Amino acid sequence: MGRGAPVNTAANAVQRLLHEQPVDTRPLGGAAWLATLPSGQQLTVKHGSGHYAIMAEAAGLRWLAEPGDVPVPAVHAADQEWLITDHIAPGRATQPAAEQFGAGLARLHLRGADAFGSPPPAGPTEAWIGLAGMRNQPEQDWPTFYARHRILPYLRQAVDQGQFDTTQAAVFERVCDRLPQLAGDPEPPARLHGDAWSGNVHWSDGVGHGHETGTPPDGWVWLLDPAAHGGHRETDLAMLRLFGLPMLDHVLGAYQETATALGAPLAPGWQERVGLHQLFPLLVHTVLFGGGYAQQALATARAAG
Q1: Domain 142-185+268-304 is in which class?
Q2: Nearest one of 136, 117, 130 to 226, comparing CA atoms
Q3: CA distance 72 to 88
């Protein structure tokens, strides 16, 4: 999402798109604002870096919300510049919420997608992950998709930036060549959040869209800011681990229990493939931030391949 739009413009966007004037609008950080309506309802108002970025996030939120497996903020409006969703107040991390999230994420993944790399319905091919462009291009199998659209494009950018030399780049290229052998048992495309690092996993005591029957005493875990697409479910799970998530063991335990009960346990060796699936976010961070991410990505590629 973009940066620098003035707060009064965010208020104007709410008035224009929802036909209500906020009684208060204050910054949340980055390109987001908290708008309070006369009814007391609170909304998150985000300024986009472009029409496709907003289209991708709005389509992803709607796609993930469709089955009601994991709560996500409801989309109230979107145009070429602005995305308006429910605001979800933060809460505490609890074991019951973690287990509920793990079970819901397993169900969500198993809702499936049209293909590896397919965008959400009405979502654009040219999408975003954080501040980086991301292409959702369907492919027939996961190794082809992951190599063509999740490793090699960011590797090329990193080489152009001087982050890797040709010898180092060859390490990633060997991983791509070996992906059919490294990927584990084939499985159908999953419905992925796509950017499920801990900052987009939101613990809240509140109730929201799709869960109007009440708030459990131990709260919910929400998914925010998706880069949704059809992919491999182990990618979301690896992303949860990358920067640390509270009570991750409870999340993963409930995930595996639910997936097994639904007849789709995680394939043998999934824990050894975590690094393989973390290559994509590590390369994105290398391109965006450089520094130690390049060395972390290179070490992960060497271990994976």
Answers
A1: mainly alpha
A2: 130
A3: 9
